Amino acid sequence: MSNGLTRRELEITDIEKIRHILDTSLVTHVGMVDGDEPYVVPMNFGYIMDGDKLTIYLHGAKKGRKIDVLRANPKVFFEMECDLQPFEGDVACRYGMAYSSLMGKGNAVIVEDVEEKKLALSAVMKTQTGRDFTFEDKMVSFVNIIRIDVTAYTAKCRPIPKK
Ligand SMILES: Cc1cc2nc3c(=O)[nH]c(=O)nc-3n(C[C@H](O)[C@H](O)[C@H](O)COP(=O)(O)OP(=O)(O)OC[C@H]3O[C@@H](n4cnc5c(N)ncnc54)[C@H](O)[C@@H]3O)c2cc1C
């Protein structure tokens, strides 16, 4: 199976443009494998980029289907998008949407360490609000944190076509 983009000319490799997608996408859609069925959950997220190593953090309830699925199979595929802008054309097939998006795969780990949970929640709040927050031990005990260790990703930008 190909992991390269079919329309290679739209691929983004500039790290600042990749950060822009991570900073401005509000939601990531996390795909999982539930036995022999796909399962996709939209979630808010935070991220840490260390060199070219990308880590994504998710927060949520301690129980539920996605936790059960990830405990059984930690493999995930995720997607996020930003800068959505519909455009018109002279015929139906020239209508479309400009976007930037990022997709990747990785392994999900349920984080138990209190200090890493605080770091994760700070990353989520920074990505979602642009602001810095700190957390007490008690606050993090109520929430579940999932870390996605990203093993590969690609980014793409489809601009509005020139007339
Ligand atoms: C924009 C957005 C942002 C979100 N951000 C977060 C987040 O940061 N953290 C978080 O934990 N959750 C978030 N959610 C909710 C998330 O999508 C799930 O509903 C939630 O995480 C529970 O997942 P679960 O697998 O444990 O659900 P369960 O309640 O265990 O799922 C049982 C069944 O309920 C149905 N279901 C579950 N979720 C949804 C849904 N969203 N829409 C319709 N049907 C559903 C499905 O059929 C599923 O099989 C967000 C949702 C949206 C739309």
Query: From N to C, what is the helix and strand string?
Result: EHEEEEHEEHHE
Q: Give the strand tally.
A: 8
Label the structural class.
alpha+beta
Shape, per Cα inertia axes: globular
Structure explained in plain terms:
The protein is α+β, with helices and mostly antiparallel strands and 163 residues long. It is built from 4 helices and 8 strands; from the N terminus they run E-H-E-E-E-E-H-E-E-H-H-E. Strands 1, 2, 3, 4, 5, 6, 7 and 8 form an 8-stranded antiparallel sheet that branches. Strand 4 and strand 5 form a beta hairpin. It is globular and about 55 Å long. Bound molecules: flavin-adenine dinucleotide.
Quickly list its features.
about 160 residues, alpha+beta, Pnp Oxidase, Chain A, 8-stranded antiparallel β-sheet, globular
List the helices and strands and how they pair.
Blueprint: E1 11-12, H1 15-24, E2 28-34, E3 37-43, E4 46-50, E5 53-60, H2 65-72, E6 75-87, E7 96-111, H3 114-129, H4 137-141, E8 144-158
Antiparallel strand pairs: 1-8, 2-3, 2-6, 4-5, 5-8, 6-7, 7-8
What's the gist of this structure?
The chain has helices at residues 15-24, 65-72, 114-129, 137-141, and strands at residues 11-12, 28-34, 37-43, 46-50, 53-60, 75-87, 96-111, 144-158. It is of the alpha+beta class and 163 residues long.
